[in-house]
Amino acid sequence: MKKLWNLRKWFRNQRIKRKIIIIFIPLISIPLFVLAYVSNHIFTESVINKTTVNVTGESRLIITRIEESILNAENCANIITVSLNKIIPASQELEHDEFTEKKLVTQIVNQLGLDLLFFPDVEAVAFLDMDNQLSASNNLMEDGLQTAFQSGIIQQINKTSGENIWFTMEARDFLTTVKDVPVLTLGKKILNINTGDQLGTLILIIKESSFTSIYQSVEREQERNYFIVDSQGQVISSLNKEVLLKAPEKNIIQSIWLNKKPVTDIIKWKGQQFLVSSMPFEKLNWKLVSQIPLSILTEDNRKITWFIVSLGIFGIVFSFFGAEMLSRVIAKPLIRLTKTMLKVKEGDLKIYFSSNTSDEIGFLASGFNKMLEQIRELIDQVGTEQKQKRHYELALIQSQIKPHFLYNTLDLVYVLCAMNRVAEAKEATKALADFYRIALSGGREVISIGEELDNVNDYLAIQKIRYIDVFDFSIDLDETILHDQILKLTIQPLVENAIYHGLKPKGTNGRLHIMGSCSDHEILITVTDNGVGIDPEISQELLNTKKSNHSNKSFGLINVNERIKLFFGNEYGITIHSIPAEGTSIVVRLPKHTKGEDNYV
């Protein structure tokens, strides 16, 4: 407190010029710097969100094309299986000699090449028969057969029961067309369709460049890199060949690999931030990862930010010149008048500015004091008019809601009479009479909660006659609030709304529960049903008098809400909590210890 006093004392002792500078610099610089920060943050978030949406679309397209390549390879293997089942068993019936075997190898090679024409994604295919005779669509695949046996690929394929088996992307010098170029391998054990005996082993390869061409065919920012990570955390395909068949940065793997769903995150790597997005490829347990420097995305934002900062610096410089000019023309009486006006701005309308001079300051002071007097008179006048307006609006809304229940009840009595249910018609008529005895209340608009509860009981008695199989109800109100006051016809329209728009459309027997509780300062009355519920978008607009179309569903709710607000104040009213297909709760919030209408109107 002492430091604050010393600061104020120091400020008061400064020259006007310095005071203006001290005030002007924060007023000019702080909003501009805040604007720069906020705009940069908002624009960055917007760019990231848009980029995320674009990357998601591109990733789905890439995944779809990769799936097509994988599926084409599997279809190719299946077609070759059928073709080999036609060639090999037929040759086994012939006499085996050198010419027959060469002819068989030629047939297999030709058939492999023919089948491969329909599947351009497959680079090459090779078939190893039971005599370890290798036939390939490309002669280069025949190199290193012994190494292939040692690698275990053929043994793993032969352990299967004929299903397709995929091997991870690798660079090798066997069973490939180009040595040390990464290829994806599909293996299949070829079985005789009729006998189930093994005919041989089929091996297909897809070059990594096939996947790279897919990335390049998609429209993207030049700096964005796509790569695929396998289940071992190894990059098996990438536009950046330097990271191929290597493990990416550890923090990238931790961020994306543990999440089975598409994920987007900002990751720091090698002193630079990247926007990294991933999408799973479940068939082979891969992840398609997109990586783009955040600095590229936010380059325009930084330019805007620096421009705003430059304006702030210019504003600070300009404030010095402005302070110099103002300090020459501002006098002490004007500063005092300004302080007085600031107090008025803060809401103090009882203040009076005294001036003993007859110059311009005295004339300004006289007009200022006269203006304050007129404002006070206008405020008093507006307050009186607002009270009258509330009386008029309350009477208008009350006149709208009173006939609302009467029409429905008379319709019920008519139906009961038409069905010759005289006893129930008499009971309904008696309940209607009791209802309006309380509703009219000798012209009073405010009744006790106990009277309102009796009113609701009469209404529910009528509705149970009509909808005996539609709902059951229970009432649980704290007895301490029964003598507190409430606007009549507050709870009944909410109950009516719950029956007609919640329980009746449900089609099965429902439950209606009315509960009341209180605290030191307010009363809460809740009407709950387990009906069909309300769509969240609709429930948000039901109480909006500007957007609502005043349908039957919203008419009673709007009237009750507006009456409460007009009578008790805007801090009171009703709120709606609803879950579609589960039910709706409407909470009425009222002040406690009300004494009468005049306290609130």
UniProtKB/TrEMBL annotation:
Subcellular location: Cell membrane
Domain of life of the native organism: Bacteria
GO molecular function terms listed in the Swiss-Prot or TrEMBL record: ATP binding; phosphorelay sensor kinase activity
UniProt membrane topology term: Multi-pass membrane protein
TM regions (residue ranges): 20-38, 304-326
SMART domains the record matches: HAMP (SM00304), HATPase_c (SM00387)
A cellular-component GO term for this protein: plasma membrane
PANTHER family xrefs: SENSOR HISTIDINE KINASE YPDA (PTHR34220), SENSOR PROTEIN KINASE HPTS (PTHR34220:SF11)
The protein's name: Sensor histidine kinase
Organism: Paenibacillus psychroresistens
Lineage of the species this protein comes from: Bacteria, Bacillati, Bacillota, Bacilli, Bacillales
